[in-house]
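look at this record:
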Amino acid sequence: MELKDIKLAVIGLGYVGLPLAVEFGKHRNVVGFDINAQRIDALKKGHDTTLEVSDEELAESEKLVFSADVATLADCNVYIVTVPTPIDEHKRPDLTPLIKASETIGKTLKKGDIVIYESTVYPGATEEDCVPVLEAVSGLNFNKDFYAGYSPERINPGDKEHRVTTITKVTSGSTPAVAELVDQLYSSIITAGTHKASCIKVAEAAKVIENTQRDLNIALVNELSMIFNKLGIDTQEVLEAAGTKWNFLPFRPGLVGGHCIGVDPYYLTHKAQAIGYNPEVILSGRRINDGMGRFVASQLVKAMLHRCIQVNGARVLVMGLTFKENCPDLRNTRVVDVVKELQDYNITVDVYDPWIDAGESEHEYGITPVTQPEAESYDGIILAVGHRQFKDMGAKDIRGLGKPEHVLYDLKYILSKDSVDLRL
């Protein structure tokens, strides 16, 4: 197969798949496939509810067609899989979406076809977990009748500067020839260039350690924040002072959620434990970051008690529910940990977030957000996400939501130190 012969399908049109399909659709015929019929209908009408792709960008991708019908995949010969790879309630990798996508492709797989995976996995998952499914369903033999590739996604939700085309793409293939073709395919849209890994496992490992490294760095500053809190030192001031050294890394404490940083390390630790190695440092960092919701809630409660504010039956406003600022992505948000901890103190918690879909919030977390917080109603206010709307409000308007005696806790350093009661 040559580059000009590729008939492309992108399987999974979420935060990763849609931007990729749109870029390819500007240059070649692409089938954008998703099992969510409502998602497909919205995209056919020209709107992306994740806000990753603008209506104008969708319109520009003239060679992209959307479908929830498996039959539309029959004419394709290269499939890019961009489905989620979450963890379950026990922090174990959940490959269900990946396996189901592989089963779907297996039904239409033909001799000479290539299946490229972008979903985050542990080293070996493509060839050990996905390929056997493709073989079983299609009846074809790997690296004889069909081939595989892996090119880890690097999408940063809500980031309008670092887009799919401007981020260097790691590529790989199950044979040297396939690796070269996969690299050529991505090079046709990636202006930042590509990096061809020596094999699929190297590409898989590169992806999973990117966010593991970030997770550990954030865990370090989270632990430092706890220490400095006990010492009565402002963490932000310490980090700013240390940041004057040229090689100090600019990480900040906070809640670690989302589809990558709070999830990917568990894929690596799962594989490490499967081969008999206990990854102590990685899991220690995960424990620290997973416990930040409890720490935040306890700090607010202590501050309220110091102000002689009745905790039992109090009202607290949590501003922001998404896992990061200025995007509607609720996946694996750890703000819910703060909400649940406060509710355990018999505190009534209102959540306000202008970016989220209320139905999704209710479905995923059982949280019904308020459409507008009531003025002078709250004993405590937590700035949990740094949305621009909250920055625009400023300290005076945010304070106006609290009762005459209340505690304002800024987790994201949105406001100045002297305008808040607590900072992380």
Notes: The chain has a mean pLDDT of 95. The radius of gyration is 23 Å.
